[in-house]
Design goal:
The complex is a heterodimer of chains A (about 375) and B (about 575).
Chain A lengths: L3 H34 L1 H31 L13 H7 L29 H32 L7 H23 L5 H19 L13 H39 L14 H34 L7 H20 L7 H24 L11
Helix pairs in contact in A: 1-4, 1-6, 4-5, 5-6, 5-7, 7-8, 7-10, 8-9, 9-10
Chain B lengths: L3 H8 L6 H21 L13 H12 L2 H20 L10 H9 L3 H7 L9 H30 L14 E7 L5 H14 L3 E6 L5 E7 L1 H27 L1 E8 L3 E3 L7 E4 L11 E12 L11 E12 L6 E5 L5 E3 L2 E17 L5 E6 L3 E2 L6 E12 L5 E11 L2 E5 L3 E4 L8 E9 L15 E3 L11 E4 L5 E3 L6 E17 L3 H20 L3 E9 L9 E9 L6 H12 L9
Antiparallel strand pairs in B: 1-24, 2-3, 3-23, 4-6, 4-22, 5-7, 7-8, 8-9, 10-11, 11-12, 11-22, 13-14, 14-15, 15-18, 16-17, 18-19, 18-20, 21-22, 23-24
Classes of the chains: A mainly alpha (about 375), B alpha+beta (about 575).
Bound molecules: protoporphyrin IX containing FE.
Chain lengths: ~375, ~575
């Protein structure tokens, strides 16, 4: 039944992917390090400070011109400290055609590149991106072969769940990389995926096998597929959230003037943008997670006769759901936006991980899914 | 990024109850005074005396605020945690898990038992949180729905006077000679084409505006979502009250009749009449289990497939139906579902007295208790056996069943090599005397009983009976004999009747659909103002301003405003990209 050689091939592909991700990780690190050494970064920092001063002056001029023009009307005292805010303020010229949203620099362009123009950093960055793509391809091959070898979906136990979920996470990263130029995430994404795959092959590994009878159901395909998607999405959102917390601390320091001009956080998008990336991913995955829980309860109804039985795995899926719902609410509640909401999102991820790696392995429930003894 | 005025405007796009945003002002006053009353306030705070009705109103407002709902939601998930970590008493789990846990934690166990920690999901505290949340949700959602209904019927509000305050806006002078009216008409058409609901107005200075709003479905989705939550909660309540579940263990060849006495374990809601369960009978003809037989496989001996072949008939009908019940493929009779969830072995044991007359005979259900279906079980024979003095005594048989006996291990005792009955062996211990008063099918009390020596030749108390040979053991002192006559299997069915399923399913669909609308659709407004050009700009006849405002995060708002603006603006020389 099981195609042993294909299953072995899948394992090689996963090991290969791990190895190549590791190379990518070092290459991304090198890009950061060389980029930091480059004098360009310092120059860029100075330049951007200069530019900012210029822009601020411009904006102030605009504001005062406007308030002079129609006195008493909305003379906002907000002074932009970033190009973005100029845009928000509207760059509104009473007199004519100077402004056009199309011509304003976009957010991405206003962060200095990670490679800082350093030749070695540029090379490292090129290597990083190409190895990431190669590793991702191997990763996908590993997941697909695993499924083909066992003649079923490749998420029948915790090992498979983990390699499939991390492939989703990397797919999101690669998507962000090519569509949004999210290089800044590379070192964190590859580092995390190496750790996850290491855990999968070292701790969770299980030979490709047929499924235990409880898992013979089309709902397995749907329910676990959705859970796999969510695991990847939650992971990337969590990376963005963690970066957000660091970056917003950096921004506070930068406002106080205590941040180093060559700090690595300079080369990461603004806290607002990071927060938005995390939110978008979570807002996208929350309905999927809801669906996961619902599909799971339909499956439970088919298999055990009750759609909800407070089985430990169900309970923790519910807790995860509640915490992420609270995150969405928190973002819509004044005073909770930002840091507090992010912490709620991190707790949500903690619950998710706890469910998959603690409850399914150590707590006795009906979900005999892990296959890890 | 938004000035206070912007935020007020963004707030007005929401149908959230006002008090949510006003919480800080409104409730600190009253909540603060309540706290002040509790504190040792040295007369600093003068309390407004709240009448009972005011108190009620205050409490209701608190309860139905989103913040309290969230707190309740958090509390519900916190309260669910102990249930996931401690063993729970329920119809589907082995009750000994709980008693064992309590035995192992002498001081904590009884306390937790008293506080309901072994029946968390039925405990008073869990139920209270759940009911409060239910009330909170209803109190929150009904007013919101009304509010939203009104909002949807109202035209969008007029464009603000100063568009520069909107989060996204831009403007330009237009010297192409288009009239203000024509520009506004174009703007109106452009917004309508983008599915905005549009209103238009004129200003005293000869200018005019167009205001459009779209994304009403977002709020509708949000309401559907929250209402569906109420549906789910109601479903849980219905399930708890009118539903019932239980478990039966049916041995091959045995019948089961759906009366509550026949249940091995049951959990009936308060609204269920245990004497009027839907009647039917069922017989297990045979049970078949398949296991992985490949010795090299990591999964050697793992179950592969189970089938319970049953015949059943609804009471009053003499038609008998057949069905092969499998995991994930339940049997439904008279609105009651039977799910095959587990199975086990029932060795057929006969106990004879000294005259050789059987005093007990039949299959005894054993329970899986180790690798490869090593099972343990017991049999208690209350009457018919006399001890060596001729006095009646209880007889307790306790033993292991090994489907494929593979010898004894120093550490694990008897071991089984495969879960199917290839070489069945029964290992027996026999006790006489006082076996305690419990009628549990899992254990009897051996502390006061005497264990008999069954193998005097080797001085051993336990003896193994092989189904192929040596199937009978004589009890000492001529008390009688025990024989191992065969092996049957039994199937465990979980029985379930749950009238809430349809409601819960519909609500679940509402939840997912509502969420997709609520999180996927953006509610936004776009405003266009056209004014006569300012004095200095002689070459421009009119001035056009476009601005946008969105509720919550909206990455596309800028694109939307830009799109509207582009359509209204004459091509810009040298800027075509
Ligand atoms: C089981 C409990 C609840 C869950 C899971 C839940 C979930 C959600 C979700 C996912 C959103 C969308 C957030 C967004 O727009 O970004 C939302 C919005 C909202 N919820 Fe809840 N909710 C719950 C209970 C409540 C209760 C009890 C209330 C009222 C007191 C409430 C009031 C609101 C309001 C006013 C919004 C709109 C926020 C906005 O438009 O951004 N929710 N809720």
């Amino acid at each position: 039944m099981i195609n042993e050689s294909l299953a072995r091939f899948s394992n090689y592909a996963i090991y290969g992917a791990m190895f190549v991700y590791l190379i990518a990780f070092f290459a991304y690190t090198a890009e950061w390090v060389f980029g930091r050494k480059s004098s360009f970064v310092v120059a860029a920092a100075e330049q951007s400070a200069e530019q900012r001063a210029k822009v601020t002056a411009q904006a102030e001029a605009l504001v005062s011109a406007r308030s002079a023009g129609n006195a008493g009307q909305g003379a906002t005292s907000v002074v932009p400290d970033d190009l973005r805010d100029l845009d928000d303020l509207g760059a509104f010229d009473e007199l004519g055609d100077l402004d056009d949203l199309d011509d304003l620099p976009t957010l991405e362009e206003s962060i200095p590149a990670i490679d800082g123009g350093n030749l070695r950093a540029i090379t490292a960055g090129g290597i990083a991106v190409s190895t990431t793509v190669l590793a991702f391809a191997l990763h996908v091959v590993g997941v697909v072969c695993r499924g083909v070898a066992a003649h079923r979906v490749p998420w029948g136990n915790l090992y498979e769940f983990t390699i499939a979920g991390s492939a989703v996470a990397m797919a999101i990263y690669v998507g962000l990389l090519f569509r949004r130029g999210a290089r800044w995430l590379g070192v964190f994404a590859t580092g995390t995926v190496v750790a996850i795959l290491g855990l999968a092959v070292e701790v969770l590994y299980k030979d490709a096998e047929q499924l235990v009878p409880a898992l013979h159901s089309p709902w397995l395909v749907v329910h676990v597929a959705a859970a796999v998607l969510c695991s990847g999405a939650f992971t990337v959102a969590t990376l963005a959230t963690v970066l957000y917390l660091f970056k917003s601390r950096y921004e506070t320091r930068a406002k106080l003037g205590t941040a180093s001009p060559a700090s690595m956080w300079k080369r990461v998008p603004s806290a607002m943008k990071l927060d938005l990336v995390a939110y978008r991913i979570l807002a996208f995955s929350f309905p999927i997670w809801t669906f996961t829980v619902i599909a799971g309860s339909i499956w439970a109804e088919r298999a055990w006769g009750r759609y909800w039985g407070w089985d430990p795995t169900e309970t923790w899926a519910f807790i995860t759901w509640v915490v992420y719902a609270a995150y969405l609410h928190a973002r819509a509640t004044r005073g909770w936006k930002g840091r507090n909401a992010s912490i709620v999102a991190l707790i949500g991820y903690g619950c998710f991980i706890f469910n998959y790696f603690v409850v399914s392995i150590f707590v006795n429930g009906l979900h005999s899914y892990a296959g890890v003894k | 990024m938004a000035s206070p005025t912007d935020e007020m405007d963004a707030e007005s796009l929401s149908t959230a109850p006002r008090e949510d945003s006003a919480d800080s002002t409104d409730s600190t006053e009253t909540a603060g005074s309540a706290a002040g009353a509790a504190g040792a306030g040295a007369g600093a705070v003068t309390l407004p005396r709240l009448s009972f009705v005011e108190w009620l109103r205050w409490a209701w407002r608190q309860l139905t605020s989103m913040r309290v709902a969230l707190i309740l939601l958090f509390m519900l998930s916190l309260a669910a945690i102990p249930g996931s970590l401690l063993p729970q008493r329920s119809a589907n789990t082995d009750p000994t898990l709980v008693t064992d846990w309590i035995d192992r934690h002498q001081s904590l166990g009884p306390l937790l038992e008293h506080l309901g920690f072994f029946t968390v999901y039925k405990s008073v505290w869990f139920t209270s949180i759940y009911l409060l949340l239910f009330v909170s949700l209803i109190g929150c959602i009904v007013p919101r729905s009304l509010q939203h209904y009104k909002a949807v019927r109202k035209p969008p509000p007029a464009a603000p006077r100063n568009l520069a305050r909107m989060p996204v806006h831009y403007g330009w002078g237009d010297g192409s000679g288009t009239s203000i009216e024509a520009k506004l008409t174009a703007a109106e058409a452009a917004l309508k084409k983008k599915r905005f609901r549009v209103v238009r107005g004129t200003d005293a200075d000869g200018g005019g505006w167009v205001s459009g709003e779209k994304g009403y479905l977002r709020e509708i989705g949000n309401l559907v979502f929250h209402l569906s939550l109420v549906g789910i909660l109601a479903g849980f309540a219905i399930k708890g009250y009118y539903g019932y579940q239980g478990k039966v263990l049916v041995t091959e060849g045995e019948n089961f009749t759906n009366i509550s006495l026949k249940y091995d374990d049951r959990d009936f809601g308060g609204g269920v009449d245990a004497d009027k369960l839907p009647p039917f009978t069922l017989k297990l003809n045979s049970f078949d289990a398949r296991y992985e037989t490949n010795k090299d496989s990591q999964d050697f001996g793992q179950p592969r497939n189970f089938t319970a072949d049953v015949s059943y008939s609804a009471a009053g009908s003499n038609r008998t139906n057949h069905k092969a019940v499998k995991l994930n493929d339940p049997l439904t009779v008279n609105g009651v579902n039977l799910y095959l969830v587990s199975h086990g072995y029932a060795p057929v044991i006969t106990v004879r007295d000294k005259t050789g007359t059987p005093v007990w005979s039949g299959p005894v259900k054993f329970f899986e208790a180790g690798a490869m279906f090593k099972s343990s079980g017991m049999l208690r024979v209350a009457d018919g056996i006399k001890d060596k003095d001729g006095k009646p005594t209880q007889l307790g048989v306790q033993g292991w069943f090994l489907p494929t006996f593979a010898g004894m291990s120093m550490t694990q005792g008897p071991i089984s090599a495969f879960p199917a009955p290839v070489n069945p062996e029964l290992i027996l211990n026999v006790y006489t005397g006082d076996l305690g008063s419990s009628t549990s099918v899992y254990r009897f009390d051996t502390t006061k009983a005497i264990q008999q020596v069954l193998d005097p030749a080797n001085g051993r108390k336990a003896v193994g009976l092989d189904l192929d040979k040596g199937k009978t053991v004589q009890l000492p002192d001529g008390m009688g004999s025990i024989s191992f006559d065969g092996v049957k299997q039994y199937a465990q069915f979980d029985i379930n009747h749950d009238p809430s399923k349809t409601l819960v399913f519909v609500s679940a669909v509402g939840i997912v659909g509502g969420l997709i609308l609520s999180l996927g659709i953006r509610r936004r407004r776009v405003f266009v103002r056209v004014k006569p050009a300012a004095q200095g700009a002689a070459q421009d006849a009119i001035r056009v301003e476009v601005a946008g405002l969105a509720r919550a995060e909206d990455g596309r708002l800028r694109d939307e405003v830009r799109g509207v603006g582009r359509g209204l603006r004459p091509a810009k020389v040298g800027a075509q990209k």
